[in-house]
Amino acid sequence: MRQLRSSSSDTEPARFRLRPAKSRDTPLRQSRRLSPSVFRLPGNRGTRCTSEPGAALPRLQRVMDSAARPAALYGRRKGQRLEPTSANGLEEYNAPDSIFLPNGVDLRQVTVLPKAEWVRIRDSVDSAAREAARIHAERKERKDMHLRSKAVVKNWPNTIAGQAQRKLKARKLREEKEEEERKLLDLEEAQFQAAKRKEAIEQAKTYQYYQNERVKGLHKALLLTEVLKERDAQIEFKKTKPDIYKKKEEEMEREREKAILKEQEKAYERYMNRQALCRDHLEQIKEHKHQAELDKLEAKKEGEEIQRLTKLYELEVQRENEKKLEEKLEHRRMHCAHVADQDILKAVQEQKQEEENDKIRAHFKAKQNMAKLRREKEAEMNRLMQERRDIITNHLAAQMKQTFERIDERVARDVAEREAEWEKELKEREEKTKAELKSIAEHRATVIKMKGEREKEAILEGKEKLRELMEADRIYLEMEKDKKRRNRNENIKMQKTQIQQMAEKRAKEQHEKQAELDYEAQKEVITICKEQEFQEYANQVIDSESKTTRNIYPLLKAAKEGHGGGHGPVYRERGGIRPSYQARDINGTQLPSYNCNTTEEIKELNTNGNIQQAKGRLGFTW
């Protein structure tokens, strides 16, 4: 609370200064600020002064007014001491430094409370805060005790938490050990998989090498060599075959006779089983026939009952149809009356529509140039509205279908109510029609007047539109000139780009040609390496087969230098290929190779190395 001091001089006595009670800025205290004012008297520490709420402001004013006057003496008010009061006066009354009462406070209007009453009021005001503080202190004490208890029993081994902690530690150690074992297994698995991958790569390389044409040819020759070897062995075996197979044929004949006898016994047993099965089937057929006759009689009885129920259902349906027909005739009569009324309203609406059409045509003539854009926009809106309308129509159709089904059930009880409502509605429509005719006449006069005003506005809008069109034409011509200038600049830029692309293309072609030459050189080196590898492999196979086989000519032919499989010479400059020469006929058979020593000798005899001698012999002397 703001302190108030007296405006009197320093020499005035301060024995009877009054001090307000200490303020506690608690929510409960703030909510009670409109309570009676309470002050402390300096002469008695156990008493309090208070005033009523209604007199708080007048009394405060009186206290402030009286602050300028000398303070009243304690006890009998008979006079005033002239000497100044020392500081011991305050100590005598045991009153701390306080404030003066405001001017205008009448001490006779101040109520003095006993200490017990003041304590009771203070307790009632601060009870909620003290209770909250006590609860908070108890909670804090319990929480601290709980934390101390947890800290004490945290490391005890014979508690549930300690056992759980030991289990968690043991589990953690076990998981770490398992993780180490898994890591070792993963490492072994990775090494095993790497070995398997390496083995698979080696097998793939071997398989790919075996798929080579020359290797395939060598393997075919090896197979042919094995076949020739097997054929020689078969010829040797054929010579000793009669003596070996004679005993086997006799044994097989005895086994065949035993099998025939055993098969005859099984056939007789199967015959007897079929006879017994046929007898069982005949008995079952008889039972089925008897059951079929019983079922037929039961079905006949059920059919007669169904026919009787069907006739009853048809009679009920006929009565329902007659009832519905009567209801439909009544609805048709009511609908015809409704349509007659709608025709009258339709004529009025057509007249309104005709007037609106005249107004729209006049407006359309004035804004003919803007109509195209509006129609496009309206078409788009109509399309969206039509889609929405279709969705709504389908939804309404489904709802109407359900509604009609419900109406058929309720129509019987609603006919009487609708007749009364129809008569009332007919009267209302007659009154409404009269009012509408009157409003139509007034509207016609208003429309004629507005039509003249709109024609004037249309003329002004047409002039404004013409000016806008001329401005648009001017802007369009400027845009066309700008467009031509941009096109010319783009063409120049495109020409430069094409020249640059041609140079890049020429450089790219040269680079590709050089790369192709390098590729051919690398391919030739690879071919030579493959040929050397093949010759080594072929020599190993030939050496191995020559130890066990006499006829190794197919292997020697397949291992001949030069790949291609032809009979021609080997072209060293083309990677060592041996081309094939085909006959010029429909078959295209490969020509045989007659290159031998005799052929070379005959060629040397029939070939003249000096062409000058041939010229002289033929008579070419010039």
Task: Describe this structure as you would to a colleague.
With 622 residues, the protein is mostly helical. The chain has helices at 27-30, 56-66, 88-92, 115-153, 160-210, 213-366, 368-546, 553-558, 597-606, 611-618; strands at 19-20, 38-40, 48-50, 103-104, 111-113. Strand 2 and strand 3 (48-50) form a beta hairpin. Helix 6 packs antiparallel against helix 7. Keywords: Coiled coil. Residues 1-53 are annotated as: Disordered. It holds the Pfam family TPH. Residues 163-193, 245-332, 363-432 form a coiled coil.
Quick structural summary:
By secondary structure, the protein is mainly alpha-helical. 75% of the residues lie in helices and 2% in strands.
SSE layout and pairings?
Layout: E1 19-20, H1 27-30, E2 38-40, E3 48-50, H2 56-66, H3 88-92, E4 103-104, E5 111-113, H4 115-153, H5 160-210, H6 213-366, H7 368-546, H8 553-558, H9 597-606, H10 611-618
Antiparallel strand pairs: 1-2, 2-3, 3-5
Helix pairs in contact: 6-7
Instruction: Indicate the structural class.
Output: mainly alpha
Count the helices. How many?
Answer: 10
As a percent range, the share of strand residues is under 5%
Note the overall shape: extended
The major beta sheet can be summarized as:
4 strands, antiparallel
| Spatial strand arrangement across the major sheet | 1-2-3-5
- Calculate the terminal CA-CA distance, rounded to whole Å: 151 Å
Rg, Cα atoms, Å: 64 Å
Please estimate the helix content: over 70%
Task: Please provide the ordered H/E string of secondary-structure elements.
Answer: EHEEHHEEHHHHHHH
Give the overall average pLDDT.
Answer: 75
| Assembly form of the protein | single chain
Strand runs, count: 5
